[in-house]
Design a protein that fits this description.
This protein is an all-alpha fold. The chain contains 23 helices and two strands. Strands 1-2 form a two-stranded antiparallel ribbon. The two termini are about 40 Å apart.
C-alpha cells in the first residue's frame, strides 16, 4: 500500500541516480554494456526503470494510501480490512473502498497521498526545457523539413479515429464478452481515450462531459490510456535506436533532418564558450524568467476565456480553457522569439543540454506514474487498446511507406497525438535536441484538433456498439 520511500526529496534523488547510472553505464567501454546499449536505448531505460521501481518493486509510487490512518478510518466505521492488503496497489485499494464499503469518499481519500514530482517536472521543468531548446532553433531548417511532417501528423490522427471503431468491431466479433461493460458504456468510455490520444487531457475531459461518462468507467479508461500510450512510447524510443534501418525500409529521405541537426551542431560549435557563474545565471534568468511569463500569461488568459466556456465547448475548443495548453504555447513562443535575438548565443553555454537534462527528469517522472500491474487487471480493455494502437501504427507505416517519410516524422507525429506536449518533445529530442520544437509544434496542433477527431471516432464507435 505504502511504497518504501515516501519522502519526495528521496524519490527525486533516487530518480536522478537512476538517470545518472544509465548514462554512466552507457559510456563504459565494457563489451557487455556496449552490446546491451546497442539494442536498448538509454532513454527507454530512463523511462522503464522508474516504472519498475513503482511496480513490482514498490520502492516509489505516484499515489498511495497511508496504511495506519486508513485502518483507523475503517476501524471507526467497524469495517475489517482485507487480509494482506498492505501489498495492494493504490488502484486496488481504492477500488475495494469504492465497491466493498459504504464509506464517504472524502473519509478515505483524506488518507491518500499524491506525489508532486510529475507536476513539478511538467509545469516547471518542461516549459524551461522548451525555452532552452527553442533558443537555437533553425526556422529555415524547420521549413525545409517540408510537408511530410504535417502529413504524418494527420495520418496519426486518422489512425486513432479509425482504430477505435476497428478495435471495438474486432474484439466484439472475436470475444463478445471480453469487457464487463454494456456496449453503451464501452463506447462512451472509449471516447475519452480518443480525446486523450488525439489531443490531450483537456480534450479527454471534454469527451467525458459531452458523452456523460460515469466516473468509475472514466477511471478505468484513464488506466488503459496511460498504460497503452506509455508502452507505445517505449516502442518509439526503441525505434529511435534503429531509425536508420527503418528509414531504409521506408525508402525515406532523411537528408533534411540530418542537415538541420548539422546546422544546429555547427552553430553550437561556433558560439561555444566556457560557462561562468555569470553566464549560467543569465541563462537561468532567461529560462526561468520565461517560465514566470508563461505561467503569468496562462493565469491571465484562462480567466478571460472562462465566460465563453459553453461556446468553446460547443465548437470543440475546450483546450483553450486549459492553463497547461497556454503554458506550453507561451513558453514555446517565448523561445521562438528569443531565437531571433542575441539570446540565441546562449546555446554556446549548453542551453540545449540543460533543456535535455530537464526533459530526462520529466521522462523519469512519467515512468514513475506507470503501473504495469494494472495490465493484468484490465485485460479486456487492454486488448481493445492494443488493437486500437496497432491500427494507428498500421496507418502510420502505410502512409510513411507511400510518401517515403522518415521514421522521425512517424514517431513524432504519433507521439504528438498520443502523448501530447509533455512527451512529443521527449521523442523528438531522442533523435536530436535540435528537433524538440517540431514535437512541441505538432502537439499544440493536436490540442486544437483533438476534440473534433474524438467526436468523429466516438460516433463511429457508437454506431458499431448499437
Amino acid at each position: 500500500m505504502e511504497p518504501i520511500f515516501t519522502n519526495e526529496a528521496v524519490v527525486l534523488g533516487l530518480l536522478i541516480v537512476v538517470l545518472g547510472a544509465v548514462f554512466f553505464t552507457e559510456k563504459l567501454e565494457s563489451k557487455g554494456w556496449k552490446r546491451f546499449y546497442t539494442f536498448v536505448p538509454s532513454l527507454l531505460l530512463c523511462y522503464f526503470i522508474p516504472a519498475l521501481l513503482h511496480y513490482p518493486l514498490g520502492l516509489i509510487a505516484p499515489h498511495y494510501f497511508e496504511q495506519e490512518p486508513l485502518e483507523a478510518v475503517l476501524k471507526a466505521a467497524e469495517i475489517a480490512p482485507p487480509e494482506g492488503w498492505g501489498s495492494w496497489t493504490y488502484e486496488a485499494v481504492k477500488t475495494w473502498l469504492e465497491e466493498k464499503t459504504n464509506l464517504e469518499e472524502s473519509a478515505y481519500m483524506a488518507t491518500a497521498k499524491h506525489s508532486n514530482l510529475y507536476f513539478m517536472a511538467s509545469r516547471y521543468l518542461l516549459p524551461v526545457s522548451l525555452i532552452l531548446l527553442c533558443l537555437s532553433i533553425d526556422i529555415k531548417g524547420l521549413i525545409n523539413l517540408g510537408p511530410k511532417a504535417l502529413i504524418m501528423f494527420f495520418a496519426a490522427s486518422v489512425g486513432i479515429i479509425l482504430g477505435g471503431p476497428a478495435a471495438l468491431l474486432l474484439t466484439s466479433y472475436i470475444a463478445p464478452g471480453l469487457v464487463d461493460m454494456s456496449p453503451d458504456e464501452l463506447w462512451r468510455g472509449l471516447s475519452t481515450v480518443a480525446g486523450s490520444w488525439i489531443g490531450g487531457g483537456a480534450n479527454q475531459t471534454a469527451m467525458k462531459e459531452v458523452f456523460e461518462v460515469p466516473d468509475n468507467i472514466f477511471a478505468a479508461m484513464i488506466v488503459v490510456d496511460v498504460i497503452v500510450a506509455n508502452i507505445w512510447m517505449g516502442f518509439l524510443l526503441y525505434g529511435v535506436k534503429i531509425s536508420d534501418k527503418v528509414d531504409r525500409w521506408l525508402n525515406a529521405d532523411s537528408s533534411a533532418i540530418k542537415e538541420l541537426e548539422e546546422r544546429v551542431s555547427d552553430y553550437r560549435m561556433s558560439v561555444a564558450q566556457m560557462p561562468s557563474t555569470y553566464s549560467l545565471f543569465i541563462m537561468a534568468a532567461v529560462g526561468f524568467g520565461g517560465l514566470a511569463l508563461a505561467h503569468a500569461g496562462a493565469d491571465w488568459i484562462v480567466p478571460l476565456l472562462t465566460p465563453f466556456e459553453e461556446t468553446l465547448n460547443e465548437i470543440g475548443l475546450s483546450s483553450l480553457l486549459s492553463a497547461f495548453f497556454w503554458l506550453i504555447v507561451l513558453a514555446t513562443t517565448y523561445g521562438l522569439v528569443l531565437s531571433f535575438t542575441p539570446a540565441r548565443k546562449l546555446e554556446g553555454l549548453g542551453a540545449s543540454r540543460w533543456g535535455s537534462l530537464f526533459i530526462y527528469i520529466l521522462v523519469a517522472t512519467i515512468g514513475m506514474k506507470m503501473n504495469l500491474g494494472e495490465v493484468v487487471k484490465n485485460l479486456g480493455l487492454f486488448a481493445i487498446g492494443i488493437c486500437w494502437m496497432l491500427v494507428h501504427v498500421g496507418v502510420l507505416l502505410l502512409v510513411a511507406k507511400l510518401i517515403r517519410a522518415p521514421f522521425f516524422f512517424v514517431a513524432v507525429g504519433s507521439q504528438a497525438n498520443v502523448g501530447g506536449a509533455a512527451s512529443a518533445p521527449v521523442v523528438a529530442s531522442a533523435f536530436s535536441p535540435a528537433l524538440a520544437p517540431v514535437g512541441v509544434l505538432m502537439a499544440v496542433l493536436g490540442y486544437a484538433l483533438g476534440t473534433y477527431g474524438a467526436i468523429i471516432c466516438a460516433l463511429m464507435m457508437k454506431a458499431i456498439a448499437s
